């Protein structure tokens, strides 16, 4: 399946430079290992990959949701949720980034938002262990009271803000836990364009 | 402070470095220091040693110090390269110096104090002087020592270090610090400073002179200053040093001191002078420091020596060294003396200075005398004056200051600097410029400092950082904890999902155009109002006026043109003339057209007017009749008198004009007609003449003939000249013949249809024309003199009060006032709000004027209004339902306009009172005789729009209609005009083109807008937009273009694989290099794409239809696939985790118990096989195992044929063996078998068969060995390998396999082909033939889903098999009637089919589907079903099914009686009708849902969809049949259950006089419920429109069940007393549309029939390409006759008598053949079916074939195809 790796190993057999079919590809394979540091377990995580306009997904899912994990004895929730996405790209602008929403499922089966977060995918090939810190917006006092007793909580009206907001600094947030990722990046043909990774 | 810190730091460093740099530092140096220290400390510790001693010691110390210094200098030079050690060393040295210096100071101080004490005692003036001296000593002290000690250093440091030592005791410290600071700088700097030093030396010599004089001056100054300060000084000393004991001081000492101070002062002055001198040699550093440090050094005095003469310098030169010498010695002495005196007091100090040991001494903080400091500062520092210098001073040289600004030049605004600061700066520069010339360049021509204009802009250019507190992007919304998610109904996936979407429904008013409570008067009044409004609108439009004007304009132009042509006729060229004439013709035609239009308009106007008046009159009479007024309507007609004369003239003129035109037109026409007439007349005359002539000729000839006849008779009588006569006769004969011919010809001419006599065109009847026009004018024009009428309607009539009305009217009015209306608003079928009941006004309007805000969370599907009428109590009656369109996203509540929606009700209401009712015919009592029937109708004035939020944004869900919609909305935002084009409203360019082509009347007010837009200034809109897009450098960084990525083959394949495109699904490896991908990899895909997008080209209407159906199917398939793609990816735990269950105690116990059980090898227990997932399968083969156990009731060969064979054989004179033996050759095994049985062999062997079973799957075949007799047992296991596309064994791809397992039963016949009987004894030459007896087809999906198929199946046998018969003896005599019938018609096969290994099934689709059903119903359905399934997990229960839209629909909605096709209705016999219906349904092709819709979803299409698609699976067939049966008045239910071989299936259950029958809708067969061979294995539930009955009986086999549906212990109903059936509306259509079978249809069927026949013939020849294929025509003929017969009896057993015919005529043949019946789908399926029977497989040339095809066309293109194939072998 992953000829890509093999390919880089034997550079001598490359098609001569200038062959138009060489195009940069990025293969992201990995998993959302889990999440830790949240006030409670019983978490699940919605994730998505956002990339620039020049990026085309050849295969794989752009977004997804993990199961709810509620470990009895540990402080972290483990998802081991696979991520496998294959990009072809027009340029390096808009390098893909992952955004997350961590949700908490309470004893009544209700879901409430626990945090937003985003990370850029690494640009260097190989395996990376990434921690994605998360935050959630604080509401008004009344909201936090209601949240304390009844659950729920303030959401972003515009979830794009997670990864695109220049105005994010104005948000009042509370730091939540971290999402742990183990991401392997396979790059292909970037060296053809003089991009060293 | 900083300096101190530095020093301390350096000290610490020193200590460390000493050790550290041990290698570098000279040990001798250390020793020296040691010794020096020791010496020094000794001298200190000695305590009260004399001053002399001290001096001595000091001297020694000085010497030592000098030595050290020189050494140190040496070392430093050595180490000059190593900066840090050098640093350290210097640091070290400095500490030493410092210590010694401190000592000195202390001694001096002591001396001072002594001196002071002395002087205190004496004269105040003296003291003061001495104090100053002391002070001077203090301040000057360090300098000489330093001069001596660190001369080298001084050279570097002095020019740099400012003597800013404010307090004398502190002086050394800063100097030191500076030295420290400066010491580190790199060598380069030092070398420069050395050079510098040299230069200074030279200068110094000249400067000395100056110094001297300066010294004197300074002395004076100092004295005066000191005098000023003396008082303070004294006070301070007195206070601060009281503890000092004042000793007597002798005069000598005083003198000494004085002297010394004098010298000290001198020295100091000298030094400053030196420094000053040096300071005027600016180096790099100096110039840098110019503004910072050195500046202060420039004292005013500096000018003095400069001005002095050079002689003084000379003097000083000599003086100085001497003075120095003296001073130092004296000083030292004084110091030592004072030290000695004070030493005792300052023991602690010693230790403090040692620093390394001893207790810490507490000292008072040094307090500097501010005045002293100030004066010192004043002396040393330069304060530039802040007084403004005059510009003249600043201007260079002689030139006058010049003010550019005054001269008119632009001078930039200079940055603001405070005047004070600027003046200071200027002052400084001016001072500077006196010494350094260049400094003058600082000033400009205007005497101002040269300053660049203020670079700051007045207005800030940086965008202000908006403090946007109202930023919406970062807004947060509070959500409650979400319970459920993911429902496609919801816009945001959940009930309280993200956004706010709101629809505003405005229900304004209802006005009735007819209401059942209308009185007759109301009806008329309404009519009048309508007419009047029509009239008003027409008047407003004024079409007739417009047309009249147009007409006159046209006439004018035509006239002009005509004149023009007339006048220029001679000059014009031919082309021009043609052109003009055409134009003229155009004009004329337009004139006539316009006139026609105008006439029509006028006529309508007039009739309208007439009817208004008429209605009004009626109304009036009605009012009169009833004696009261009901409506306020009142018509007034305004008359406008006209001049009769004028009118008449006008009238006449117009009439004349028209007449003229008509005449002209007529003339033209006449001319044309006349030409035609003439032509025709000519022809006619010609024909007449010809006819006459022909007639003549014929008569001539006849006469001639007669004559000749008489002549010949005469001749015979005369009998002479016989020869001639003969000749003449011959001639006659010839002539006769030619006569005949000519006669015929002429006759033809005569017989030719006489041309109609052409009518000459009528001449113009001017009178008639005039009359006609006049009549027209009369009809539609205002008569001359008739006043113009303007009807005016008002509501001014007074309605008579109720009391004046009749009783009936009173009642009516009461009813009206009671009537109230309200409107329910239903969103997606649910009531969301309703208006309050509003009274119906007497003029039948209802005003609501209410806006309902619907906050929605679901996608809007329908918005419905229900108008209810209530009489004040109860919920009222539903008047009408009407739907509002769902607004487009651009329609917001701000932009929407109210719309009138018309509605009407079909309800019949009749009243006893005056109300006319609705839907009831009534009559006006007046002179209107005809009956009128009016339905309640009216208009609802309402609107629906998207609400607009507080922020002005519409509350519209964005992704409403998928991606395209989104794009459009986005575009709309960018460019409104582009959006218009995008949504397809108009294409302006095309519009323009059209506008140019069509000669649109620009004067027509209707065209006003478009004309303006297209010809006016708005042309710019048409121009292409020249966009400028800012995306700088984007392309530079592109690695590839989008097109490249799109085009890349590899990417395409990867993407398609990911999208699970059927072709690429499960495609395992995509090569990593593109060149490794075969170029045609996408060929198949592209071909398929093409097929999908465009209709395949097929011949024939029928096939075309099929192709269309396929296309439609494809679309549905795609939709469903898309919907389920996501669901199919949902993995269960078992898919991922594959682990064995941990055995629990019970399992262990049972397995232990099993050990003790007796072994019963003869009763093996079937073990449950483990399911294998696709992953676990990996590389293993999947096999289909078919275990054929036995077959029964197989037809046997007919004896007749073998007799024939016998005869044939015997006729050939075979004398060898007996019949029996001979037959043995043919069927060798059978005889043996029969022998054993002991039955007489000779009688029965012929009846035997040798059947075998052949299984074909995916074109590979396996077969059993041949069995014996009609009831053979095989007990054989057959294996077939399952081939899966792309080796993808995942459930989704497995269930998509459409292959069918064909199980065919053949008879193996051995044919002896030995030609020569003589060889019979030695040779065997036989041929094995297989004869098809029947087949079972099992789709693979059935096996897959059921995992195993086990049982006895009926073999599908043809209605008759030539050469075979059923062995009657087989049927047991004691068997029931049912059994015997079975035995007669069908054969059975017992078998077991399974897949090895057992494959895992796809998880049944569990996700909750969207539904439009009521929540309550769905809930109950789910609960009901779950309860039943818990109880009977194996039975099939269904409450909701999915329709083609992917929505859940309650199953009873699928039932509704539907009129069966005409064929069925034609049947009179009810039984026959049912059969026909079943037959019809069974002829609709079958396609399994699983094949159709991958994913285990069962989609129920409605009957019309089913008919449209013409294919479906069991449910569709069964539902349709049920609906037909219902329409036929039968009690019918849909039965869901399990049957073999289909598995889960649907049958139809009918109940007829307590006899229950099950119908297989797919095959059209019916079974009695008591039938043992009924394929139904279990019944789950029965469904029809009324209810669902679930089987809760113990048994599930139909034969064991109780079908009394009312028995609640047997059948559980869905609806019961507690939950009543509300009567859900059916999803089925009220009726199906059946095409009429006409001639065209018949011809189509015939054509199809011929095409199939032709194709099959070709195919058979193709299959047998090795041999010659001959066709037996005769046989085909007989078959053709047979086939329609078969169709008629629906393929049942045919009477033997029919076959006899066939058999009789083919006695000399061995005939084998059978009819095949199948529904028509396409050609290939027919060929497949024929091929699978293997009829063609007769490997010999001496065989003949017969093929007959019969297509029976049922309504709606349902076709039953019969194919009869037979092979005939002539018997020898």
Automatic annotation (TrEMBL), chain A:
Location within or outside the cell: Cytoplasm, Cytoskeleton, Cilium basal body
Listed PROSITE patterns: C2_B9
Pfam families: B9-C2
A GO CC term attached to the entry: MKS complex
GO biological process, one term: cilium assembly
Main subcellular location: cytoplasm
Family annotation (InterPro entries): C2_B9-type_dom
Entry keyword set: Cell projection, Cilium biogenesis/degradation, Cytoplasm, Cytoskeleton
Family: Belongs to the B9D family.
PANTHER family in alphabetical order: B9 DOMAIN-CONTAINING (PTHR12968), B9 DOMAIN-CONTAINING PROTEIN 2 (PTHR12968:SF2)
Name of the molecule in the record: B9 domain-containing protein 2
Automatic annotation (TrEMBL), chain B:
Domain DUF5523: 229-479
Transmembrane stretches, start-end: none
Domain Centrosomal protein of 76 kDa C-terminal stretches: 1647-1766
Skewed-composition ranges (Polar residues): 793-808
Biased composition (Basic and acidic residues): 11-20, 84-106, 113-123, 191-240, 331-342, 692-702
Ranges where the CC2D2A N-terminal C2 domain occurs: 784-957
One example of a Gene Ontology biological process annotation: non-motile cilium assembly
Annotated protein name in UniProt: C2 domain-containing protein
């Amino acid at each position: 399946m992953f000829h890509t790796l093999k390919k880089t190993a034997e550079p001598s057999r490359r098609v001569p430079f200038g062959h138009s079919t060489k195009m940069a590809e990025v293969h992201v394979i990995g998993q959302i290992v889990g999440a830790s540091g949240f006030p409670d377990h019983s978490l699940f995580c919605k994730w998505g990959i956002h990339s620039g306009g020049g990026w085309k997904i050849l295969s794989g899912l752009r977004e997804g949701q993990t199961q709810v994990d509620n470990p009895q004895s540990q402080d972290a929730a483990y998802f081991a949720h696979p991520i496998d996405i294959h990009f072809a790209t027009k340029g390096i602008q808009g390098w893909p980034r992952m955004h997350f929403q961590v949700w908490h499922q309470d004893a009544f089966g209700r879901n409430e938002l626990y945090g937003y977060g985003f990370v850029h995918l690494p640009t260097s090939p190989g395996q990376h262990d990434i921690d994605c810190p998360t935050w959630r917006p604080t509401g008004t006092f009344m909201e936090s009271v209601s949240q304390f007793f009844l659950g729920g909580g303030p959401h972003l009206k515009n979830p794009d803000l997670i990864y695109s907001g220049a105005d994010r600094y104005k948000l009042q947030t509370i730091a939540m836990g971290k999402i742990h990722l183990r991401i392997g990046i396979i790059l292909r043909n970037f060296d053809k364009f003089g991009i060293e990774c | 402070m900083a300096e101190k810190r530095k020093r301390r730091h350096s000290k610490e460093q020193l200590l460390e470095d000493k050790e550290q740099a041990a290698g570098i530092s000279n040990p001798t140096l250390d020793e020296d220091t040691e010794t020096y220290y020791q010496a020094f400390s000794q001298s200190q510790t000695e305590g009260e040693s004399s001053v002399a001693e001290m001096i001595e010691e000091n001297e020694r110390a000085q010497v030592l110090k000098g030595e050290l210094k020189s050494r140190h200098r040496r070392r430093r030079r050595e180490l000059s390269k190593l900066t840090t050690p050098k640093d350290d060393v210097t640091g070290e040295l400095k500490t030493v110096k410092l210590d010694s210096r401190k000592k000195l100071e202390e001694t001096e101080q002591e001396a001072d104090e002594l001196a002071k004490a002395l002087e205190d005692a004496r004269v105040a003036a003296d003291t003061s002087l001495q104090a100053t001296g002391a002070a001077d000593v203090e301040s000057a002290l360090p300098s000489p020592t330093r001069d001596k000690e660190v001369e080298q250093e001084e050279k570097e440091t002095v020019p740099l270090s400012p003597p800013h030592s404010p307090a004398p005791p502190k002086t050394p410290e800063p100097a030191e610090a500076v030295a420290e600071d400066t010491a580190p700088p790199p060598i380069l700097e030092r070398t420069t400073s050395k050079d510098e030093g040299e230069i200074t030396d030279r200068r110094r010599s000249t400067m000395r002179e100056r110094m001297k004089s300066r010294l004197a001056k300074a002395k004076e100054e100092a004295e005066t200053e000191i005098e000023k300060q003396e008082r303070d000084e004294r006070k301070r000393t007195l206070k601060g040093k009281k503890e000092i004991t004042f000793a007597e001081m002798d005069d000598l000492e005083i003198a000494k001191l004085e002297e010394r101070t004098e010298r000290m002062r001198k020295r100091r002055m000298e030094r400053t002078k030196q420094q000053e001198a040096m300071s005027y040699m600016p180096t790099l550093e100096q110039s840098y420091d110019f503004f910072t440090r050195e500046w202060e050094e420039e004292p005013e005095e500096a000018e003095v020596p400069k001005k002095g003469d050079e002689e003084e310098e000379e003097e000083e030169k000599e003086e100085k060294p001497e003075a120095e010498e003296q001073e130092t010695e004296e000083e030292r002495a004084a110091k030592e003396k004072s030290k000695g005196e004070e030493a005792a007091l300052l023991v602690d100090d010693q230790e403090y200075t040692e620093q390394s040991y001893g207790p810490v001494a507490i000292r008072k903080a040094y307090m500097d005398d501010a005045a002293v400091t100030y004066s010192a500062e004043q002396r040393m520092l330069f304060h530039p004056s802040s007084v403004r210098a005059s510009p003249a001073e600043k201007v260079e040289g002689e030139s006058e200051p010049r003010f550019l600004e005054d001269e008119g030049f632009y001078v930039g605004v200079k940055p603001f600097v405070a005047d004070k600061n600027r003046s200071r700066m200027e002052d400084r520069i001016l001072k500077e410029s006196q010494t350094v010339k260049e400094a003058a360049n600082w000033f400009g021509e205007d005497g101002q400092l040269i300053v660049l204009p203020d670079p700051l802009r007045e207005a800030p250019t940086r965008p202000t950082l908006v403090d946007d507190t109202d930023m919406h992007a970062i807004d947060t919304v509070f959500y409650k904890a979400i319970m459920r998610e993911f429902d496609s109904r919801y816009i945001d996936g959940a009930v309280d999902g993200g956004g706010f979407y709101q629809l505003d429904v405005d229900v304004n008013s209802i006005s009735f155009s007819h209401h059942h409570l209308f009185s007759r008067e109301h009806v008329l009044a309404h009519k009048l109002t309508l007419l009047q409004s029509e009239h008003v609108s027409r008047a407003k439009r004024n079409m007739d006026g417009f047309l009249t004007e147009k007409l006159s304009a046209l006439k004018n132009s035509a006239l002009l043109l005509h004149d023009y042509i007339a006048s220029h006729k001679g000059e014009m060229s031919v082309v021009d003339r043609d052109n003009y004439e055409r134009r003229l013709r155009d004009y004329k035609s337009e004139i006539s057209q316009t006139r026609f239009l105008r006439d029509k308009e006028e006529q309508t106007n007039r009739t309208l007017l007439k009817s208004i008046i008429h209605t009004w009159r009626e109304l009036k009479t009605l009012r009169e009749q009833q004696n009261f007024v009901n409506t306020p309507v009142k018509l007034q007609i305004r008359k406008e008198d006209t001049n009769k004369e004028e009118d008449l003239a006008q009238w006449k003129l117009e009439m004349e004009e028209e007449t003229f035109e008509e005449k002209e037109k007529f003339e033209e026409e006449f001319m044309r007609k006349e030409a035609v007439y003439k032509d025709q007349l000519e022809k006619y005359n010609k024909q007449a003449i010809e006819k006459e002539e022909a007639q003549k000729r014929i008569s001539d000839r006849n006469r001639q003939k007669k004559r000749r006849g008489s002549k010949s008779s005469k001749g015979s009588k005369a009998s002479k000249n016989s020869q001639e006569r003969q000749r003449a006769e011959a001639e006659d004969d010839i002539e006769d013949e030619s006569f005949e011919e000519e006669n015929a010809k002429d006759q033809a001419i005569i017989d030719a249809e006489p041309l109609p006599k052409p009518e000459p065109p009528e001449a113009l009847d001017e009178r008639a024309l005039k009359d006609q026009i006049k009549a027209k004018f009369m009809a539609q024009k205002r008569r001359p003199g008739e006043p113009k009428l303007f009807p005016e309607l008002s509501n001014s009539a007074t309605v008579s009060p109720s009391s004046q009305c009749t009783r009936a009217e009173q009642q009516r009015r009461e009813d009206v006032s009671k009537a109230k209306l309200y409107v329910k608003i239903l969103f997606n079928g649910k009531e969301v709000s309703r208006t309050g009941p509003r009274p119906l006004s007497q003029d039948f309007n209802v005003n609501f004027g209410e806006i309902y805000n619907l906050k929605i969370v679901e996608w809007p599907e329908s918005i419905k209004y229900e108008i209810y009428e209530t009489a004040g109590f109860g919920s009222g009656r539903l008047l009408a339902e009407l739907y509002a369109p769902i607004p487009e996203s651009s329609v917001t509540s701000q932009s929407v306009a109210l719309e009138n929606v018309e509605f009407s009700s079909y309800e019949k209401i009749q009243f006893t009172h005056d109300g006319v009712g609705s839907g009831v015919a009534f009559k006006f009592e007046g002179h209107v005789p005809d009956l009128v029937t009016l339905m309640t109708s009216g208009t609802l004035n309402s609107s629906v729009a998207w609400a607009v939020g507080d922020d002005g944004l519409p509350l519209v869900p964005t992704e409403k209609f998928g991606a395209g919609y989104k794009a459009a909305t986005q575009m709309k935002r960018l460019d409104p005009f582009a959006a218009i084009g995008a949504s397809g409203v108009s294409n302006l360019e095309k519009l323009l083109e059209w506008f140019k082509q069509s000669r649109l009347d620009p004067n027509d007010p209707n065209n006003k807008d478009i004309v303006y837009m297209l010809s006016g200034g708005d042309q710019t809109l048409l121009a292409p937009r020249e966009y400028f897009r800012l995306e700088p450098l984007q392309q530079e960084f592109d690695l590839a273009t989008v097109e490249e990525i799109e085009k890349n083959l590899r990417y395409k394949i990867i993407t398609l694989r990911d999208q699970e495109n059927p072709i690429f699904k499960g495609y395992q490896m995509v090569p990593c290099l593109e060149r490794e991908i075969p170029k045609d990899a996408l060929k198949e895909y592209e071909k398929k794409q093409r097929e999908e997008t465009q209709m395949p080209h097929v011949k024939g209407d029928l096939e075309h239809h099929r192709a269309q159906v396929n296309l439609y199917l494809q679309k549905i398939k795609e939709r469903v696939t898309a919907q389920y793609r996501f669901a199919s990816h949902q993995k269960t735990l078992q898919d991922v985790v594959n682990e064995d269950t941990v055995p629990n105690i019970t399992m262990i116990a049972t397995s232990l118990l099993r050990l003790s059980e007796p072994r019963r090898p003869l009763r093996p227990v079937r073990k449950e096989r483990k399911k294998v997932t696709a992953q676990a399968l990996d590389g293993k083969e999947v096999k289909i195992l078919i275990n054929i156990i036995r077959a029964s009731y197989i037809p046997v060969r007919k004896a007749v044929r073998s007799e024939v064979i016998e005869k044939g054989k015997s006729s050939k004179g075979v004398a060898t063996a007996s019949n029996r033996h001979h037959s043995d050759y043919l069927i060798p095994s059978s005889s043996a078998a029969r022998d054993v049985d002991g039955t007489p062999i000779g009688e029965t062997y012929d009846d035997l068969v040798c059947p075998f079973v052949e299984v074909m799957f995916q074109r590979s075949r396996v077969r059993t060995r041949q069995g014996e007799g009609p009831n053979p047992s095989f007990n054989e296991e057959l294996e077939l390998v399952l081939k899966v596309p792309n080796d993808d064994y995942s459930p989704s791809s497995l269930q998509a396999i459409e292959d069918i397992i064909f199980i065919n039963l053949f008879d193996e016949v051995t044919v002896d082909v030995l030609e020569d009987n003589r060889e019979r004894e030695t040779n065997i030459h036989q041929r094995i033939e297989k004869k098809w007896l029947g087949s079972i087809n099992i789709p693979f999906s059935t096996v897959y889903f059921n995992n195993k198929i086990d049982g006895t199946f009926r073999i599908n046998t043809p209605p008759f098999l030539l050469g075979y018969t059923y062995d009657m003896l087989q049927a047991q005599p004691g068997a029931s009637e049912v059994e015997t019938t079975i035995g007669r018609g069908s054969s059975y096969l017992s078998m077991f089919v399974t897949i090895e290994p057992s494959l895992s099934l796809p998880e049944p689709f569990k996700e909750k589907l969207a539904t439009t059903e009521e929540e309550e119903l769905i809930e109950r359905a789910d609960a009901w079903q779950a309860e039943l399934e818990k109880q009977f997990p194996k039975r099939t229960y269904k409450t909701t099914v999915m329709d083609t839209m992917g929505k859940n629909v309650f199953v009873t909605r699928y039932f509704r009686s539907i009129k069966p096709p005409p064929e069925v209705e034609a049947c009179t016999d009810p039984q026959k009708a049912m059969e026909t219906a079943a037959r019809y349904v069974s002829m609709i092709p079958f396609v399994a849902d699983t094949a159709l819709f991958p994913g285990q979803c069962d989609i129920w299409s409605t009957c019309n969809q089913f008919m449209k698609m013409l294919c479906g699976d069991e449910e569709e067939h069964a539902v349709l049949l049920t609906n037909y049966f219902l329409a036929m008045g039968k009690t019918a239910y849909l039965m869901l259950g399990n049957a073999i071989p289909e598995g889960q299936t649907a049958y139809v259950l009918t109940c007829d006089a307590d006899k229950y029958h099950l119908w297989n809708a797919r095959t059209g067969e019916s079974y009695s419920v008591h039938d043992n061979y009924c394929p139904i294995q279990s019944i789950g539930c029965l469904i029809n429109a009324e209810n669902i009955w679930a089987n809760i009986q113990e048994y599930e086999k139909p034969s064991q069940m109780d079908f009394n549906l009312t028995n609640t212990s047997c059948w559980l109903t869905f609806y019961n007393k507690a939950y009543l059936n509300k009567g859900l509306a059916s999803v089925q259509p009220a009726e199906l549309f059946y095409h009429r079978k006409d001639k065209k249809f018949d011809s189509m069927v015939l054509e199809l029939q011929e095409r199939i026949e032709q194709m099959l013939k070709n195919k058979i020849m193709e299959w047998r390409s090795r041999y010659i294929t001959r066709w037996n025509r005769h046989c085909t003929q007989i078959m053709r006759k047979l086939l329609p017969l078969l169709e008629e009896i629906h393929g049942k057993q045919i009477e033997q008598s029919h076959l006899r015919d066939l058999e009789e005529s083919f006695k000399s043949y061995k005939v084998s053949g059978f009819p095949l019946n199948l529904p028509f789908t396409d050609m290939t399926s027919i060929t497949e079916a024929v091929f699978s029977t293997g009829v063609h497989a007769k490997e010999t040339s001496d065989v003949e074939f017969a093929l007959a095809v019969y297509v029976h066309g049922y309504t709606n293109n349902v076709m039953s195809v019969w194919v009869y194939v037979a092979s005939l072998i002539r018997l020898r």
